[in-house]
Predict the 3D structure of the following.
Amino acid sequence: MRLSFKHAIILLIVLISAVHVVSAEDTGDAYSYVAITSTSSDPQVFMHGDTGTITINVKNTGTESVSINRAALYTKDLKVLNDEAYDTVGYIGAGNEMQFTFTVKADSPDGIYYPRFYLDFTGSNSLSYSLPVKIESTGLVIAVTDSPDYYQEENTDRIILSIGNPRENSVSGVTVTVKGDGISSRQTSHFIGSLSSDASSAVSFDVTPEYETDMTFAVTYNNGMNTHTSEITIPAVFGEDKMSANPVLNNVEISGSGSYMTLSGDISNAGIDEAKSIVVTVGSPAVAVDPYKSYVIGSLEADDFSSFDVTFTSTSDEVPVIISYKDEDGNNYEKKVSVSTNSGSSGISGAPSGGGRGGMPGMGNMGSGMSSIPVFEIFIVIISGIVLVFAWRKGILKKAVNFGRERMNTLQKR
């Protein structure tokens, strides 16, 4: 019994000491060493209707534990979805940190709001802090940097877009897609990923319209845990593209050679874009024959030209000249020009008057204009000039002039 009584006395002293320590902590100024070290929100800037989190980090910088009764976030501008999460907290030890995270919904108009964080210590002391939360609903911007003026049925054209982020915070999961009735694309989508504030990224789509319709480009992205979409609609209207290549036939000559005739001429690119894989041949009723059934020119840049020869047989007065070519997207084009077989030389209307790259201006029309130059007269003038120079250098011209003067003096004396 004496041993049990001794143990009871020791236990009672320990309990009284523990109560005394807690009482000293609760009634002292230990709470004054509890401080808010940082705050953050995700997303950094909300958009209207976004759901996100507000996090407050608290640290006990003192040497004694502090009892916290509850923590709360008070605001009339945001909806707090877990306002009862910290109704019971407990102790925060000396030198320890504690994190409080509140889930909120930004259901107010765009602006800056100041919800108040409240920390209730056990007893009559508390800590409060107002933190800024910004709501700004500007979305990503879509700009068309390159697209054709007009489209053609079943032809593929390239559209280049620039996706920009004018927001103050970065967004993630940026993806670009195209949709529309009668629209097909070689690219199903483009994944950009994260896009920082004030940054942009370029994407391109090769689209093919089956008929006149609208193309909608949609950009989806995440602002925190929230998904948003920005869109732009581009009409696909059929017509002639002002920038497209335009092969023009000029300086055409047809000459006979045995069992076949030879068609010669120039192909000029009067368009803006480059013409690729140019091939020249003849169509029915003419029949292309060896040695030049077709003539491959290859590529022609704007204002460039190239000569060609095609051999054929025909009993008709008209020969269809067929020019096939491709654009930079691989679309096939065909142009047909009729040429008369009765004239040995024929100019084609609409041909450019200047020469191609590397040539002198006007040289492109020399093939059909040589017959109009006065060759004989020019030859006589050149020979006369040579004779005069020769006579002057040999003194013959001077002797002739002196002789003429003496002759004139003699006639005057008579």
Remarks:
- The longest helix spans residues 2-27.
- The radius of gyration is 46 Å.
- Residues 3 and 9 are 10 Å apart (CA to CA).
- DSSP finds three helices and 27 strands in the chain.
